[in-house]
Amino acid sequence: MNESPFKFAAHSDVITPKTVAEVAEAITDAAQHQRRVLIIGGGTAWDTGHHAFIGAHPDHMLISTSELQEIVEYDPAELTLTARAGTLLADVKTALAEHDQYLPFDPPFAAAGATLGGVVAAGLTGSRRMHYGGLRDFILGIEFVNAAGQVVRGGGKVVKNAAGYDLPKLFCGSMGSLGIITEVSFKVFPQPPDQCTVVIGVRDAAEVAKIFQDVQRSPIEISAADAWTDMDALPNAGLYTVAIQIEGMTASFDGRLAALRKLLPAGASVQNVGDSDQLWEALTDLHWIGTQETVLRLYLPSGNVPKLDTVLAANGAQRVYSGAGNTVWAALNGDPTRLSADLARCETRAAVWRSPVPAPDILPDDPGAPMVQRIRQAFDPSDRFYSSPQPVRS
Amino acid sequence: MAKEVSVADPKLQALLTRLAGVFEPRDVLTELSQLIPYELDATTAFHARPLAAVFPHTTEQVVAAVRACNALDIPYLARGSGTSLSGGSLPIQGGLLIVLSKMDKILEIDLENLRVVVQPGVINANVTKAVAAKGLYYSPDPSSQIICTIGGNIAFNSGGAHCLKLGMTSNHILGMKVVLPDGELVTLGGKSLENPGMDLCGLMVGSEGLLGIVTEATLRLLPKPQAVKTVLAAYDQIDQAGEAVAAVIGSGLLPVAIEIMDRLSIDAIEKAVHAGYPDAQSLLLVELDGPTDEVLPQFDLLLDTLRKSGATSLVVPATDAERAKIWKGRKSAFSAVGRLAPDYLVQDGVVPRGKLGLALREITKLAAEYDLRVANVFHAGDGNLHPLVLFDSKKPGELERAETLAGKILKMCVDLGGSITGEHGVGIEKKAYMAYQFKTDDLDTMRAIYRSFDPKMLSNRGKMLPDASPDQLTGHVTTDRQHPLERSGVIERF
């Protein structure tokens, strides 16, 4: 994604605590002075509503996790990793790669400087989520500083734990509204020895949806299936292009690719992609999004891809379907709320990531709102943390 | 409700008045003789008498029951088959029991999106049964899967033997309808793998009935694996089996299941179900699944790793029937070991995988110290122990010794960096140990969530969260042989 026009660095008052105790002090200070608190990780999700809020309210306190960087525990034999919230995702990926392990849910924006805590708060996953599970399926434990300045832990560091409420999951996608995440524990997986990617050209969204459905039902274990149409920044194999990845032992690829070809529509072109890392990074990190003023992340049952695709095309949206069509990134222009009725018809919800006009966080509606309200009441009754983005681009 | 009520309890009368017209008379139980079977769950040490039981067929009936309880300040508990091993589905003394076993319909099988929408009373194994012909299955497989319900699985985030690669219940629940404790109905998530905003389904799963009643759930289905390969490795010492687990993970393999059984369990299982296990001090069961072209070479690597780890013999089932027999033995372990003594306590603490050997040595030491037998069967890949403490409650002092021993094992799990429960939940049985695993501020956060959802604390009152007093840390054993809740009259024991 292109660099955001919004820069938090211009804000005069960014606090960078070095310890959890300093985070707690900052919160206590904010409470005493009745200041609201905004939390910054790597700033890679800065295109969400928060920035505009700061522009409107320069007296709010900004706390950055940039000085909270450390991999606290990593024992490859345990398949678990614990790191402080400001630890760079790129550093975590490097540490894991040294032991042939990885975070298979493909958290985005590593190259741009995303932090582990930011990944959790933003609740983002990438292409391989469809096969291995998402952020919510790999997070094990969390430490955070709450609105009262107390250090609280939830979950644990072991791969299986059913004691108490699952606070780590609750923090996934909470956007800094429940507390400042200071440490996170993850389950990690061994990285398969090899991978293979093919791109397939097909004629329309119905064929894309059919491929999505078939690969999810196939026992040959497809790791990722993304699709796009007519994009300058990505390779185009047909009117619509589907990229499929399989992972495992190299010797298994011929047989599995042969099985995959049987699932594809007659006449579909299939090309091997040599250096596929670049392609998957471009897809995951949204290199294809340009200067469009509106960015949406959409969530849908993958069977509704054709219906939604008609809506997105009619609205002039560039779009990439990820995770076999369970999520979509769409970049377009204009007020996103105009899509609400169509989204409802497609059983699709959209998180508003960037918008030229004030818009709700979630379109067309958030049926979980009554529960969110109760949770916010429990965590932050005095409304210390930023909770309701109204993204406005100045 | 036409039924005459002989009981003079004014609360019960008021409740029945409110529910008249909502429930058919046959779906309401108030007589003592009818309620007795519902006084306990699979954690038979605890026992409490509900005021009444209702059997809703619809979400609207659940809403009505919850609203009635709120209006009358009656605590309530929703339950399914009552297979909880932590006393989680133990009724609340004098409270309403909302039994969901009649909400047992599979509402939708969506083959296009690989989802199934079910009511909470659907039996776990029936989900897979309904889609097996289509080459699909529902992954979470608690040992009680032929009787336990999806609603109960959601409440306790039930696990099973296949969590290492595929996750627990929480990882397979994508959407739900929930009746919140004040009667408001909310819809969470849906059919997509991901949802915008905070993970509300994630909070609900494992909340042990304290935050609401799930009346509909959307589950993820998976394609049946192309190939499954299983091996049973025999060892002279249980430590070797523990070390073999580390070697398997170290080889880069990600088995779908890794289980260990000790001598006492093996003998009991053989006697009970004749699983055909080899004679050994310890058995390690490892299963791989996936595409055939992947699994076959991986299986060779696995066998090689196990040979090098000191296995005295390797048994590879040649057919699906033989594999099923091996699993039947493992899944019957609790009931089989249960035959070895009049009573047993089962715990499900978790330790880091690398500390399994240490934990087992410690359990052996503790068993000798308390002069009791302990059988071990566990999900080794997850570090999830299942020590079964055998005792005879008729022998003076044995129950107390067993409870003290079980409590020491739980504390050991926490001391080693693990958890007091991997999959059975806290319920009533382990809530005293929550304060050993979590700090006051951690527990206060959980209490704040509970109070925010349920200011009157009616929903499954008294479970999971310990009372805020520090003396709770003494555990559930007391010198006068009474549980603190027994002393306060909340529960009774057989």
**What would you call the shape of chain B?**
globular
Strand order of the largest sheet of chain A: 14-11-13-12-16-17-15-18-19
How would you sum up the major sheet of chain A?
9 strands, antiparallel
Largest sheet of chain B: 7 strands, antiparallel
Rg of Cα set of chain A: 21 Å
Strand content of chain A: 15-25%
Overall, the morphology of chain A is globular
Summarize the amount of helix of chain B as a percent range. Answer: 25-40%
Query: Which regions of chain B are unreliable across 5 or more consecutive residues at pLDDT < 50?
Result: 1-5, 470-488
What is the helix tally of chain B?
Answer: 17
Strand order of the largest sheet of chain B: 15-12-14-13-17-18-16
**Uncertain segments of chain A of ≥5 residues (pLDDT<50)?**
1-10, 49-54, 389-394
Task: Summarize the entry for a quick read.
The complex is a heterodimer of chains A (394) and B (494). Chain A is of the alpha+beta class and 394 residues long.
Key traits:
heterodimer, A: 394 residues, five-stranded antiparallel beta sheet, 13 helices, 19 strands, globular, disordered N terminus, disordered C terminus, B: 494 residues, alpha+beta, seven-stranded antiparallel beta sheet, 17 helices, 33% helix, 18% strand
